[in-house]
Amino acid sequence: MSHRPALALLLVALFVGSGCNALPNSDPNDGVSNPDGDPDEDGLTNAFEESIRTDPELADTDGDGYSDAEEYLTYFSPRNEEDFPYEGEYPRGPLMSQADWETYTEGSDWIEGAISSGWKVTDQHGAEIKLKRFFGSVILIDVAAEWCGPCRTAAVTLEEEYDQRKDDGFVVIQLLLDGYQMGDRNPDGDRWRDDFGLTLPVIEDGDAHAAQHYVPAGSFAIPNFTVIDREHKIRSWYQAGGSPPWGLIDSLLAEEPPEVDYPMPDNADELYEALGLEPGRWVQ
Ligand SMILES: [Ca+2]
Ligand SMILES: [Ca+2]
Ligand SMILES: [Ca+2]
Ligand SMILES: [Ca+2]
């Protein structure tokens, strides 16, 4: 089901085997002066590496353990060591440039049709989750607590519903407010995931750092569900009780993802195959 752990192990083995340096360059003439060359053997030509500003002589430019090609082809930054493929393999599409993003983030929370503001939290794998990294996906924000019976009922089928849709670019972010007691600001994300077999991002959000963006002031009924579309617009805000609006989610998933300028290398197909990766839905 998952190919990434095996690949990560392979990469680790490669780096261990080569003393954590760039992969060996067997041809000293195959240097950066040749735009078609690939001296670091990361699969990306010098010309392409220049266009994305990665190091053509280093397979893992930012040193995070993932090669430049693997990161770029899965829409993570090969130039940012804090950004790398999630252990949870949550769906992700091409990112906007920062400039494009800034033109996009006007508007306010809590209004249907507005762009959801950004926030960042840490998931169960210790990975930083930034909402804007999921631009292009349909996102369900599910606010719950361990003590809440209806929340637990909704969680029973959540993994199955998520699994059916994630290849279409569906992300669920579960925000846990409390533990077993109401007002207990110590939710246990591991316990919750184990109870319901969840692989999706589960966030211990006891201070409502993220959840505060999706509930009206003075009211805090849970479970509640907010749906964010592929353009990061809030399409259904604060649906308290019951189950997520699956009909709406499916209709939003049927919409085309926004176009983002994200050039792929000419040898992308071969690279995906060589790396054992599935091309993302957004690959042209
Ligand atoms: Ca290269
Ligand atoms: Ca490189
Ligand atoms: Ca890297
Ligand atoms: Ca990186």
Q: What report would you give on this structure?
A:
The chain has 284 residues and is α/β, with parallel strands linked by helices. It folds into 2 domains: 1-93 and 263-284, no CATH class; 98-253, 3-Layer(aba) Sandwich (Glutaredoxin), CATH 3.40.30. Helix content is 26%, strand content 12%. The protein is built from 9 helices and 7 strands; from the N terminus they run ααααβββααβαβββαα. The protein has helices at residues 4-17, 46-52, 68-73, 98-104, 149-156, 158-165, 189-196, 246-253, 268-275; strands at 120-122, 128-130, 138-144, 170-176, 202-204, 224-228, 234-240. Strands 5-4-3-6-7 form a 5-stranded mixed β-sheet. The longest helix is centred in the first third of the chain and has 14 residues, at 4-17. It is elongated, with a radius of gyration of 21 Å. It binds calcium ion (CA) (4 copies). Residues 62, 64, 66, 71, 76-78, 80-81, 83-84 line the site of one calcium ion.
